[in-house]
């Protein structure tokens, strides 16, 4: 049975494992990561000390990108000692309350991690099509007395992600704005500009990945589908010159 993965934060209890019976020790998170990442890439892993009424020790919350990977890890690790002397209790989280149900986009770094795992480091590439300085484009508000207390730097970025082995490309466009802490310090403008450029590029890369679906087959092979909205598909079909012109307008 195939599983469809999106470049989005895994939402729901079926992606999450609770691990009890952990002994507090140095490098605990590293040991847990080594043990559970064997079953698939992890979105997050956090350890917490037990409540006072529960006695000494720790528990961990491990979240996978794949529900299938989480289930395999639970079956294989429950009741096993793994890296410590006493066996661990590992279960799928069954409570929906308290879990983020809203589907959120992955950060650009997480998108790259997921793509590297399933597509390989050479299975995808990205490039910046255009990076436009949009600062001051809404200066007409100044005539109306609507100037902001702090100046800001705005950048609009368009990024293209290409999957050559699948014959697929996807584009993302994003805008970022960063306040300049001190308009009297030129270095503050430089710092804000660099940060705005980096944020815009990261958001655009994440936006491009949102249109890509990874279909993980039982044999471990990965198929890819392109799934944009009608408006996004129109943007992706534009030539670079047309896209740049649209952004400038």
TrEMBL record:
GO terms for molecular function: DNA binding; RNA binding. Residues 15-95 form the RRM domain. Its main location: cytoplasm. It is found in: Cytoplasm; Nucleus, Nucleolus. Pfam families: DSRM_RDM1, RRM_1. The keyword Transcription does not apply. InterPro entries: DSRM_RDM1, Nucleotide-bd_a/b_plait_sf, Rad52_Rad59_Rad22_sf, RBD_domain_sf, RDM1, RDM1_RRM, RRM_dom. The keyword Chloroplast does not apply. One of its GO terms (cellular component) is nucleolus. Keywords: Cytoplasm, DNA-binding, Nucleus, RNA-binding. Gene3D superfamilies: 3.30.70.330, DNA repair protein Rad52/59/22 (3.30.390.80). GO terms for biological process: DNA recombination; double-strand break repair. It comes from the Eukaryota. Homodimer. This is RAD52 motif-containing protein 1. It comes from Turnix velox (Little buttonquail). The gene is Rdm1.
